[in-house]
Design a protein that fits this description.
Layout: E1 7-12, H1 19-27, E2 49-51, E3 54-62, H2 70-84, E4 95-101, H3 109-114, E5 123-128, H4 130-144, H5 154-178, E6 186-189, H6 204-214, H7 224-240, H8 245-262, H9 272-276, H10 287-302, H11 316-320, H12 324-349, H13 354-366, H14 369-383, H15 394-402, H16 434-446
Parallel strand pairs: 1-3, 1-4, 4-5, 5-6
Antiparallel strand pairs: 2-3
Bound molecules: guanosine-5'-triphosphate (GTP) and magnesium ion (MG).
Length: 447
């Protein structure tokens, strides 16, 4: 089977509806399409949009068509038909996102035309700027209640507006699309997409629905090869997207636990997919940095005295009473979760600097409270049933990890490495981007 290198996505929607915003939040802030004044609204569906820091996804951008614009309609549908049926999986179109800006006009003829015909690629319908729609409802309610005495409290107005907007969305948008002959595979509404961050994602629903649409619930007509291909596409999509960390955590845990149980008791754990999934600068494509990171993780995760069952660990006497098999499962759970949590930190740190990553890993192993919380949660869970011989289901482990409080890493101070060699001093300026926010928060704390 050919290696699948890039996920290919077509995004359709009228100018200004928020396509570029979605793409940049999906795959990095530097989509080569950032609108310039003179380029705004100019689109060529054939043009491949690359992301400078993300080579796992390629996008095509189309302004769509108005009802009656036959030529433009055909450009879009022909593109989907031709690209959607390509034998070469890397050239094939894998997903279409059809965007419509939410406003007071209900579903248009263009949508009726598009979803009235059969197509070869799954389509998700996205209603954008739902926040503006809610805001319109707020104004309506306020105008209607102008003479109320006492005036409606703002919180009540907001709540009412949200409910009204949801209801109208259901009746005037969702159900109308669903009734068309070939409805979209899923329908999602997006609010304040421009404010999305990986830790507080506004694209979660879109990411999850896209994953679901790649493998339809009725896949009886799919060949086993095609199904396998679609599964790999789904994994590639999770890897490519940097919009939602929770989805990455869930996938990393589920996949690593599955592989881990297959080779239980063998240490160290298999880490390639776990590291690659994060789409950081430490992927296995760069074999030197990959093996360096893998070694660091082995040292500070797989062979850490924190590991459940380690004879120097604080609760060794308690854990020793457990079934041997359970101890191995719990150690696996801890190794997988530790690795996933560290990768989450590395993702946010977004650095290629070895010294920095090393300090981060050492901090996690030695001083972080999140590692302690995790261990305590696992020990407490399994101590309830020490004679058990099976470990947690991936979903239960995901629940435990999601319940942890992630603190900001304390890695600013330049640390002495154990061998005595001095690490280069940490840069005075905190990292640009997400982590700088975390650092600032932390700094405030310290004052
Ligand atoms: N209120 C609100 N504004 C948004 C949202 N998403 C995007 N915008 C804003 O809408 C404007 C247009 O967004 P773009 O992403 O450039 O739209 P586009 O579809 O790429 O437009 P063209 O490239 O001209 O086709 C920008 O100012 C965005 O910040 C949203 O969810 N809510
Ligand atoms: Mg654009």
């Amino acid at each position: 089977m050919a290696e699948i290198k890039r996920f290919r996505l077509l995004i359709i929607g009228k100018t200004g509806c928020g396509k570029t915003t979605i793409l940049s939040k999906l795959c990095g802030d530097d989509v080569a399409d950032m609108p310039t004044a003179h380029e705004r609204g100019k689109h060529d569906i054939e043009r491949e949009l690359d992301f400078r820091t993300n080579d796992k996804l390629v996008a095509h951008d189309s302004e769509g068509f108005e009802a009656g614009e036959e030529a433009q309609y055909r450009v879009v549908t022909e593109f989907i038909r031709r690209r959607g049926t390509m034998q070469d999986v890397n050239q094939r179109l894998h997903m279409v996102w059809y965007c419509v800006e939410m406003n007071t006009r209900p579903v248009q003829m263009a949508e009726e035309q598009f979803f009235g015909a059969k197509r070869d690629v799954p389509v998700i319908a996205i209603f954008t700027k739902f926040d503006n729609y809610v805001e319109d409802m707020v104004q309506q309610i306020q105008e209607e209640a102008e003479d109320d005495d006492p005036p409606k409290p703002l919180s009540e107005v907001d709540k009412l507006a949200e409910e009204k907007a949801q209801e109208s969305f259901k009746d005037n948008y969702r159900s109308r699309l669903e009734k068309l002959p070939f409805p979209p595979e899923a329908i999602v509404a997006l609010s304040r997409t421009h404010e999305s961050t990986p830790e507080d994602s506004r694209l979660s629903e879109l990411v999850r629905q896209t994953m679901a649409a790649l493998i339809p619930s009725d896949d009886s007509r799919m060949t086993p090869e095609r199904r396998q291909e679609q599964e790999r596409l789904r994994e590639l999509f999770v890897t490519a997207q940097t919009a939602d960390l929770t989805v990455k955590v869930e996938n990393a845990i589920a996949t690593s636990m599955r592989i881990g149980y297959e080779s239980l008791g063998k240490r160290p754990i298999e880490r390639q997919r776990l590291i690659d999934l994060w789409n950081t600068k430490w992927s296995s494509q760069d074999s030197k940095s990959f093996s360096w990171l893998n070694r660091q993780l082995q040292q500070h995760v797989d062979f850490s005295p924190r590991l459940i069952g380690h004879e120097n660990s604080p609760d060794f006497n308690q854990v020793e009473q457990w079934n041997e098999q359970l101890r191995q499962c719990a150690a696996l759970e801890e190794m997988v979760s530790d690795s996933v949590i560290i990768m989450r930190y590395i993702f946010l740190l977004s650095t290629k600097d070895q010294a920095q990553v090393q300090r981060l890993i050492e901090w996690y192993d030695g001083n972080s409270s999140v590692a302690k919380q995790l261990r305590e949660a696992l020990v407490s869970k399994h101590s309830q049933n020490p004679k058990n011989n099976v470990g947690l289901k991936p979903l239960d482990l995901i629940t435990i990890v999601s319940g942890l409080t992630f603190e900001a890493p304390d890695i600013k101070v330049s640390a002495e490495v154990k061998s005595g060699t001095r690490l280069p001093a940490a840069s005075a300026e905190p990292q640009k981007g997400l982590f700088s926010k975390i650092f600032k928060k932390k700094d405030k704390h310290n004052k």
